[in-house]
Amino acid sequence: MGWEALEQWGDARRVEPLAGGVANQVWSVRVGGQLAVGRLGARSDADLAWETDLLRHLDRGGLTVPVPIATTAGRWFADGLVVMTYVEGVPPETEDDWRRVADTLGRLHGLTQGWPQRPGWRSSVDLLQAVSGTRIDLGAMPPEGVARCRAAWARLSGRPTCVVHGDPNPGNIRITADRVALIDWDESHVDVPDLDLVLPHNAAELPDGAYDIAAQASAAWEAAVCWDDEHAREQLSRVRAAEPGTVVADRCAGRA
C-alpha cells in the first residue's frame, strides 16, 4: 500500500526523508500537528508486533525510546508502516557520554530478561547449530569464516539472554543533559547482552577477558549479518581462527 497507509493516522502528512534508512523508508511526519517519525518497510506483522510491543514495554519501564503512535483505529502499525514519537538529542561524544549509554543498555537488558525471540531471528548461540535466521545465511559464507564465527559465539554459550539493541552506534543514540535515548530498533533481538557492550572507552567496564570475548562475538555477528560486503569482510578479518581442539557445530548442521 505504501505511504497511503499514513491516512490511517488521521491528520497526518509526510514532511521530509530522514537519513539512515537502509531496509526501510524513514520520513519525518506530522500527526495532529506534532512532529513524529514514519518508517515504511517490508517487515511481517508478527515482526512489527514484536517490535512495537517491546518499545511500549521499554517506555513503561522508563527508557527513552521512539514510542509507537496508534492509528485512529487503535493499531500500532498498518501495511508495513509504523509511526513513532520523534526523539531529540545528539550522538554521544565523550567518555562520560558513553558511560551513560552503557548504563542505559544495562537497563534495557534488565527490563527484557525472558523476552521472547523476535519472529524468524536466531541468537548468536542458536547459530552454533542453525544455518540461517532473518538476514543471516551462514551457508553463503566460506566454511572457514563460519568456523571462526561459531568459535567466537561458542564462548557465549550458557549465558543468560535478553533483548539486545543490536546496533548501538552513535547514529542510533540521542543524548540530552537529562537522558539517553536509543533509536532504530531494526536489529534488536534476543541474544547475550555482551553483544551490545563493545563500546568506545570500554564504557561498560568489561574485564579484559570479557571484553575480548564480546568483541570477537560482535565482529562475528557483524560479518554474518552483513555478508558479503566490504564491512562484513573487514569484521570477519577481526575474528581470530578457532584455537586447535575447539569443537563447534558443523556449518550444515541444523535448519533455519
Structure notes:
The chain is α+β, with helices and mostly antiparallel strands. Helix 3 (143-154) runs antiparallel to helix 4 and helix 4 packs antiparallel against helix 5. The radius of gyration is 19 Å and the shape is globular. It folds into two domains: 2-85, Phosphorylase Kinase, domain 1 (2-Layer Sandwich); 95-237, Aminoglycoside phosphotransferase (APH), C-terminal lobe (Aminoglycoside 3'-phosphotransferase, Chain: A, domain 2). The model is unreliable at 247-256 (pLDDT under 50). Helix content is 28%, strand content 16%. The protein has a four-stranded antiparallel β-sheet, with no helix packed on it. It has a two-stranded antiparallel ribbon with strand order 5-6. The two termini are 30 Å apart. It contains five helices and ten strands; from the N terminus they run βββαβαββαββββαα. The chain has helices spanning 45-60, 95-111, 143-154, 208-226, 230-237, and strands spanning 12-17, 25-31, 34-40, 81-85, 132-133, 136-137, 162-164, 173-175, 180-182, 189-191. The longest helix is centred in the C-terminal third of the chain and has 19 residues, at 208-226.
String of helices and strands: EEEHEHEEHEEEEHH
Q: How is the CATH topology of the largest domain named?
A: Aminoglycoside 3'-phosphotransferase, Chain: A, domain 2
Number of extended strands: 10
| Largest sheet: spatial strand order | 1-2-3-4
Low-pLDDT runs:
247-256
**Radius of gyration over all CA atoms, rounded:** 19 Å
CATH H-level superfamily title of the largest domain: Aminoglycoside phosphotransferase (APH), C-terminal lobe
> What is the percent of helical residues?
25-40%
CATH architecture classification of the largest domain: Alpha-Beta Complex
How many domains, as an integer? 2
The helix count comes to: 5
Sheet/helix structural class = alpha+beta
